Amino acid sequence: MSLPGTLGAMCGIVGYVGPQDARDVVLEGLRRLEYRGYDSAGIAVVADGRLSSVKKAGKLANLEKLLAEQPLPAATVGIGHTRWATHGGPTDRNAHPHLSADGSVAVIHNGIIENFASLRAECEKNGVEFRSDTDTEVATHLLAAAYAQAAEGPGRLADAMRAVCRRLEGAFTLVATVATEPDTLVAARRSSPLVVGVGDGEYFLGSDVAAFIAHTREARELGQDQVVEIDRHRGLTVTDFDGGAVEPKAYTVDWDAAAAEKGGYDRFMLKEIAEQPKAIADTLLGRLGPQGELVLDEVRLSDQELRDIDKIFVVACGTAFHAGMIAKYAIEHWTRIPVEVELASEFRYRDPVLDRSTLVVVISQSGETMDTLMALRHAREQKARVLAICNANGSTIPRESDAVFYTHAGPEVAVASTKGFLTQVVACYLVGLFLAQVRGVKYEDEVSAIVADLRRLPEAVAEVLAGMAPVRELARSLAGANTILFLGRHVGYPVALEGALKLKELAYIHAEGFAAGELKHGPIAVIDEGTPVIVIVPSPRSRESVHDKVVSNIQEVRARGARTIVIAEEGDDDVVPYADHLIRVPRTPTLLAPVVTTVPLQVLACEIADTRGLDVDQPRNLAKSVTVE
Ligand code: AGP
């Protein structure tokens, strides 16, 4: 048997109540959430006092095929789900929605119900027969029982949902609909994402706003442990799990629907790579205040609190962690505050020393990554201050932080982060400069000079992108490689790690990034005749002759048979004799160089994957937003 506790983790959720045909709206919403990664899908609608549902393992095309064979009736209420299984088979029976025994209640779920085993035993004792291995089904049966007991009349389904939520442990977004209430949807959330879209006489639910921005950009944030009841005629009511009224925070989504479309590109990732100059420019836009001072989006910390900071942790996962590694070099250099960078999944388990004078910078494109969220909560429990760098407005991580810096990358749909990463790096620079300025370790004109360098980055990235034809050609010759190594020093080291991660996740090729100086301490043994080694060379103007040392490292690997692919800035002739392939990038100040040197690595990984015939936007086994620990 599978491990139901970990099923249904990173799922996509869609709900609709309104005059349009719910079948179309829900299916379209699911299509827009496809990028989250999933392995089965399902829909339920309520029409003519009956609940009808269809679900199928595999991609949405399978569900659509089934819908053509077993059409659902037109309806004004519907829910839809894409499920991403971490354990257990992605089968038809485990797909959502899950229905109560009499078929009158349907539930979709994202997250983990940790106490599902005892609740399942209780249901089974009461004679309930389970039809799936999921934890979700427990919530369905409990909800059906609570609904049967709840007082008839308006609010009955919400009453039942609150009663169930009070019994659940773990993280969950639940959305439910019931056959007898054709105008009502009820949803609940604890530590899993859910946003509400408000249109003209219609309402939407989504795991993120991509589910509904084609219809409305007016949204409501749902807080922790809240239940929302949507009634087509009575509107929206939000309460806590005990029934206390809550006023949801309204906001307008500043992404438009077109931003979440492919816009003429074959792949979302290609589009997102191409959008990087604009994404960086947008992230820099409006950051300087009237006196030339830097401004963040939301700061619930006083200047004195920021001046009192004596230590910084940067905490994130995956690509965002690599952005954090780059941040360490810049923030330490500019502020002279010690900075540690930590994987969110490790951070709280090693009992880090945190107090009021610690600043924890959490970085997350989605704002929903569970490891990062849990690290954030741990930091706040220890009284540390938390600053979030985030792309998704209205997501959980910025909501729970003391200060927020939004990257303005627009929706990032491809699972592999590209523009999300570059804008995170730029945001880290700005946060470093902001802190340096508040603490008086940099004068405003010094800050402005670096901001001027930052403002040249969009053009530099555009220049790199314009010269990518040879990189594409090179990619095709690398598509058969078994292993590719990446080397870098200083800020080039996280770039090497990021290049290796992109290649692993997109092309499924074994890849590793190393600090170039570490190579001689072991990894050099793996280099064989023809092993491709990609080297990110620092500027010849970098301090402490790091450049020359990397040039020596290229010679060392070449002497052992490596095929060297060198990324170096224009005019660096020292590398020419040792490069089997040379990729040029524009001259850029040392600390800012990752923004340009990362780009060829993104293109390379994307092209290698494409040559291998792989799904670049939705690589196997991965989900865009990792909402389990
Ligand atoms: C990047 O290409 C990834 N797919 C992944 O490492 C990602 O960066 C990580 O899961 C963190 O996501 P977040 O920025 O949304 O928190």
Please explain how this structure is put together.
This protein is α/β, with parallel strands linked by helices and 629 residues long. The protein has 3 domains: 12-252, Glutamine Phosphoribosylpyrophosphate, subunit 1, domain 1 (4-Layer Sandwich); 262-455, Glucose-6-phosphate isomerase like protein, domain 1 (Rossmann fold, 3-Layer(aba) Sandwich); 463-618, Glucose-6-phosphate isomerase like protein, domain 1 (Rossmann fold, 3-Layer(aba) Sandwich), CATH 3.40.50. It is built from 19 helices and 25 strands. α7 (276-284) runs parallel beside α13 (419-438), α9 runs parallel beside α13 and α9 runs antiparallel to α17 (492-507). It is globular, with a radius of gyration of 25 Å. The model is unreliable at 1-9 (pLDDT under 50). Residues 317-320, 364-366, 369, 372, 415-417, 505, 622, 625-626 line the site of 2-deoxy-2-amino glucitol-6-phosphate. 2-deoxy-2-amino glucitol-6-phosphate binds at residues 317-320, 364-366, 369, 372, 415-417, 505, 622, 625-626.
